[in-house]
Amino acid sequence: MGRYTGETVEQAVASASKRIGVAKEQLEITIVQQARHGFLGIGRRNAIIEVSVNKTQKKAEKHEQIQKSHNTKRQSKRQRDLKPRYEPVKENEVDPAEMKRRHEQNVKRVKKVSQDLAKYLKDVFKNLGIEVNPIIKDVRSHEVKIDLQSEQSGRIIGHHGRRINAIEQISNAFMNYLGAEKTTVILDTADYRQRREESLQQLAERSVMEVVSTGQAVFLDPMPARERKQLHQELQDNPHVKTYSHGREPYRSVVIAPKN
């Protein structure tokens, strides 16, 4: 217990609370002397109080602190118990050497399956009466390019490229079935793919002119996803038209429509 003074009882209580470091509600207060203002300063006196900390409140606070401490310890232990013994390795944290090994393994797998595909393609075209010599031009982890060398390139391509595109889809399924999942096969013959890209550029230009002049959308013939992607990219910045794909595979096509 200690004594504290102030011009008023309230000031004395505030002083005691600050000095002891506890809230006013936790103090037991005994007023020893009431404050008096006096007359013209004569007989003026401060308030005097005696204070002590409420033991019940103090025990409750101590119990609360102990409980919080126990809860924190239990939570830390629970987190340690739940933490896996071995932290999983995130994809972006894979060791560069491991990434290189995986890449080389994928390329090796694609190369092996593409060799089987080349033999398969030779047999397929032979049954169609077309002599073909499939040459593997480029092998990547998820892509392979095969040049179908032949004196009958026109028959390999088919009307509007339908035959080569159809066999290309079969080739993708072949690669996936034999373990080279998600591998894109690009078949070419007599530089058809390069000539086709140039034709698509011209097709895009003609279609834009038609859309602008008529105000009507143009529905193109079905084409492979790679060619649809080229058309979308060709016209993505065009201020007059917009493009979107329509239908389901293998009959999915590009639509070129007025932007507004």
Automatic annotation (TrEMBL):
Q: Which organism is it from?
A: Limosilactobacillus fastidiosus
**Which Pfam family, an example, fits this chain?**
R3H
Name the Gene3D superfamilies on file.
3.30.300.20, probable RNA-binding protein from clostridium symbiosum atcc 14940, R3H-like domain
Query: Which residues lie in Basic and acidic residues bias regions?
Result: 58-67, 78-105
Q: Which HAMAP family is this protein grouped with?
A: KhpB (MF_00867)
Q: Which GO terms describe its molecular function?
A: RNA binding
Which lineage?
Answer: Bacteria, Bacillati, Bacillota, Bacilli, Lactobacillales
The cellular location(s) given in this protein's UniProt record come to: Cytoplasm
Domain remarks in the entry?
Has an N-terminal Jag-N domain and 2 RNA-binding domains (KH and R3H).
For the keyword Zinc-finger, the answer is no
GO BP terms: namely:
cell wall organization; peptidoglycan biosynthetic process; regulation of cell shape
Give a yes or no for keyword Hydrolase in this entry: no
**SMART domains for the chain:** Jag_N (SM01245), KH (SM00322), R3H (SM00393)
| Residue ranges of domain R3H in the record | 194-260
Q: Which UniProt keywords apply?
A: Cell shape, Cell wall biogenesis/degradation, Chaperone, Cytoplasm, RNA-binding
What this protein is called in its record is RNA-binding protein KhpB
Any single GO CC term annotated in Swiss-Prot or TrEMBL for this entry: cytoplasm
- Entries under InterPro entries matching the protein: Jag_KH, Jag_N_dom_sf, KH_dom, KH_dom-like_a/b, KhpB, KhpB_N, R3H_dom, R3H_dom_sf
Q: Which family does it belong to?
A: Belongs to the KhpB RNA-binding protein family.
What SUPFAM superfamilies would the database entry show? R3H domain (SSF82708)
- In residue numbers, the region (Disordered) covers 55-105
- Annotated function: A probable RNA chaperone. Forms a complex with KhpA which binds to cellular RNA and controls its expression. Plays a role in peptidoglycan (PG) homeostasis and cell length regulation.
